C-alpha cells in the first residue's frame, strides 16, 4: 500500500516515515511538511497526519477532495470538528478517516480501564505529563479520557468529585474537562505519560501509562493504515481496529 506522511519532518512524522519504510507491505511515496506542495501525496492510498491542530482540518479536506484515506494522530478534535468531517465524508463515498488521540496500545487500554473504573469511584482526577515542546494542553489523550470517564460517571449517577476548595491561586486545581480536573505537566526528559487517579472511602486506584519512545505509537498507526481502506466514513479511536 502506498502511504504519504504529512508533518514528515516532525517528531511523530519522522517516526512514522521510519515505521512505514521498515514495513514489507507499505511503500512511502511522499513526505510533506508545512509549505510543501501536496501533489506527490496524490500517489498515496493513505495519508498519515501528525501536524498541528491549526493545519489538520485543511489537510483532511485536501485528502477528501483527492479521495485519499487518512490516519490522523494530530490533536485538537472537538465535537464540532468531528461533525464537520462526518458531513464532508458524505461527499467522498468510500473514503475512510481514522482519528485517534493516542495510538499506543497501552494508552488505549489505559483509557478503557479508566472508563470502566470511573463508575465505581467518588473522586477522579487526571494528570498528564509531556515533553515541553508539546503545542497543546491538556493533551488529546487526557481530554478523551476525561470525556469517557465523565460519561461513565453520569451513567452511574455520580456527580462531580467532592471538593471543598474555596480559596485557590487560579489554576491550582488544573483545568476541568466535563467536570473532571485535568493537570498538565511539561517537563524536559518526558515523552508522553498519563496517570488517572480514582478515590473512594479508604482506597485509591491509580492507572498509569508511560510512552518512553515514539516507537510506542507505531504498531497502532500501522494497524490503522492497513485497516482504513476497509473502513469508509469516520472512525474515532483504534479500539475496534485492535479488536478491543
Ligand atoms: N495520536 C497519537 O498517538 C499522537 C499524537 N501526537 C500529536 O501529533 C501532533 C504532532 O506532534 P509532534 O510530531 O510532536 O509535533 P512536531 O511539531 O514535532 O511536528 C509537527 C510537524 O508538522 C509540520 N506541519 C505543520 N503544519 C503542516 C501542514 N499544513 N502540512 C504538513 N506539515 C505540517 C511541522 O512543520 P513546521 O515545523 O515547519 O511547521 C512539523 O514538522 C500533535 O498534535 C501531537 O499532539 C503526538 C504523539 C502521538
Ligand atoms: O504531543 C504529544 O507528544 C502527544 N500527543 C498526543 C496527545 O495530545 O494526547 C498523544 C500523546 O500523549 C503524545
UniProtKB/TrEMBL annotation:
Reactions this protein catalyses: (S)-2,3,4,5-tetrahydrodipicolinate + NAD(+) + H2O = (2S,4S)-4-hydroxy-2,3,4,5-tetrahydrodipicolinate + NADH + H(+); (S)-2,3,4,5-tetrahydrodipicolinate + NADP(+) + H2O = (2S,4S)-4-hydroxy-2,3,4,5-tetrahydrodipicolinate + NADPH + H(+)
Organism, as annotated: Naumannella halotolerans
Transmembrane is among the record's keywords: no
Positions with a binding annotation for (S)-2,3,4,5-tetrahydrodipicolinate: 131, 140-141
Binding site for NAD(+): 7-12, 37, 73-75, 100-103
GO annotation, biological process: diaminopimelate biosynthetic process; lysine biosynthetic process via diaminopimelate
Oligomeric and partner information: Homotetramer.
Keywords: Amino-acid biosynthesis, Cytoplasm, Diaminopimelate biosynthesis, Lysine biosynthesis, NAD, NADP, Oxidoreductase
Region of interest (Disordered), residue spans: 135-170
GO terms assigned for molecular function: 4-hydroxy-tetrahydrodipicolinate reductase; NAD binding; NADP binding; oxidoreductase activity, acting on CH or CH2 groups, NAD or NADP as acceptor
Subcellular compartments: Cytoplasm
Gene name in the database record: dapB
Domain Dihydrodipicolinate reductase C-terminal: 106-241
Source organism superkingdom: Bacteria
The protein's name in its UniProt record: 4-hydroxy-tetrahydrodipicolinate reductase
Family the UniProt entry places it in: Belongs to the DapB family.
Amino acid at each position: 500500500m502506498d502511504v504519504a506522511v504529512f508533518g514528515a519532518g516532525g517528531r511523530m512524522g519522522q517516526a512514522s516515515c521510519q515505521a512505514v519504510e521498515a514495513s514489507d507491505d507499505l511503500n512511502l511515496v511522499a513526505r510533506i511538511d508545512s509549505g510543501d506542495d501536496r501533489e506527490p501525496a496524490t500517489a498515496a492510498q493513505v495519508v498519515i497526519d501528525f501536524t498541528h491542530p491549526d493545519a489538520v482540518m485543511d489537510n483532511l479536506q485536501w485528502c477528501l477532495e483527492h479521495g485519499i484515506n487518512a490516519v490522523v494522530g494530530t490533536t485538537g478534535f472537538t465535537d464540532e470538528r468531528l461533525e464537520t468531517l462526518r458531513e464532508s465524508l458524505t461527499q467522498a463515498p468510500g473514503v475512510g478517516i481514522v482519528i485517534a488521540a493516542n495510538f499506543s496500545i497501552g494508552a488505549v487500554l489505559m483509557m478503557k480501564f479508566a472508563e470502566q473504573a470511573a463508575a465505581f469511584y467518588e473522586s477522579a482526577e487526571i494528570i498528564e505529563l509531556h515533553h515541553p515542546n508539546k503545542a497543546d494542553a491538556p493533551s488529546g489523550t487526557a481530554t478523551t479520557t476525561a470525556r469517557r470517564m465523565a460519561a461513565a460517571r453520569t451513567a452511574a449517577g455520580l456527580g462531580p468529585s467532592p471538593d471543598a476548595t474555596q480559596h485557590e491561586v487560579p489554576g491550582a486545581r488544573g483545568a476541568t474537562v466535563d467536570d473532571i480536573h485535568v493537570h498538565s505537566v511539561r517537563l524536559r526528559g518526558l515523552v508522553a505519560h498519563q496517570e488517572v487517579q480514582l478515590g473512594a472511602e479508604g482506597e485509591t486506584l491509580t492507572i498509569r501509562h508511560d510512552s518512553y519512545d515514539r516507537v510506542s505509537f507505531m504498531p497502532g498507526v500501522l494497524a490503522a493504515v492497513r485497516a482504513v481502506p476497509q473502513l469508509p466514513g469516520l472512525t474515532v479511536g483504534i479500539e475496534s481496529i485492535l479488536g478491543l
